Amino acid sequence: MEKDTFFGFESISAAEKVRRVGQVFQSVASRYDVMNDVMSLGVHRYWKAQLLEKLSLFPQAQIIDVAGGTGDLALSIQKTYPYLDLQVLVCDLTPAMVEVGRDRAINAGLINGIQWACGKAEALPFPDASVDIYTIAFGLRNVGDIAQSLAEAARVLRPNGQFVCLEFSQVQMPWWQTVYDAYSFNVIPSLGQWIAGDREAYQYLVESIRRFPNQQALATLMKDAGFRDVQWSNFLGGISSLHIARR
Q1: Which residues have CB under 8 Å from 1's CB, separation 6+?
Q2: How far apart are the first and last CA of the chain?
Q3: CA-CA distance, 42 to 45, in Å (whole number)?
Q4: Does the pTM of the predicted model rise above 0.85?
Q5: Distance between CA 180 and CA 196 in Å, rounded?
């Protein structure tokens, strides 16, 4: 029997979540990056820069960026480390997001070193032990089955390969949670309506954060999937966290 999962505060089947998440990102693809900058006041760029600093890179490393969306992380990797001849494969569920990302890469002159594919995190279209580094930034929350997605990450990584996940998490201080909730529920959906023309997509974003496993729970799921040396660090008191592990 298929497991239930969450879509915001609603419990639905994993297959239905995949379908509805696809609709959400199909709707907001063209304004996705602008919305990220506005609603986070640009802070998401700092978080992603911290992710880049933690990557165990070496010349000609094979990287897969799952739920890579419009390619901002992939483009940053190539722009920051052009001398390493890295190969980054961006895989995302939503064709519209991939199209936006591919156009951005072409406009930036990054024709080589980045490839694009559509696929589900729970069933990646790549061979076993085929990549050195797996990254996922603000995407694990959107998958239909978190445990299966982590198992797939472990499957495609080579032995000792690196897993890196940046995701919204659980705020550690009650007073900061109150401030964060007020901003999240009252401001972000309105910004979504104003900038992306889709209030419901950003209402889903706010609700999905509250349903996602906290820092320790995610670390446990990672260990259950076969990862070792699991560690995490918090940003802004736990609004987001960066989990890192080895295959």
Answers
A1: none
A2: 29
A3: 6
A4: yes
A5: 21
Q: Comparing C-alpha atoms, which of 138, 185, 157, 177 is closest to residue 62?
A: 157
57, 138, 158, 163, 193 from 61: Cα distances, Å:
6, 23, 11, 14, 40
Between 183 and 34, the higher pLDDT residue: 183
Supply 154's token pair: 């472990």
Average of per-residue pLDDT values in the chain: 89
In the chain, alpha helices (H):
14-28, 32-40, 43-54, 72-80, 95-107, 146-156, 174-186, 188-191, 199-211, 215-224
Only one residue has tokens 């889903």, namely 204
- DSSP class of residue 193 equals I
Q: What is the C-alpha to C-alpha distance for residues 215 and 221, in angstroms, rounded to an integer?
A: 10
pLDDT-based confidence at 1, cuts 50/70/90?
A: very low
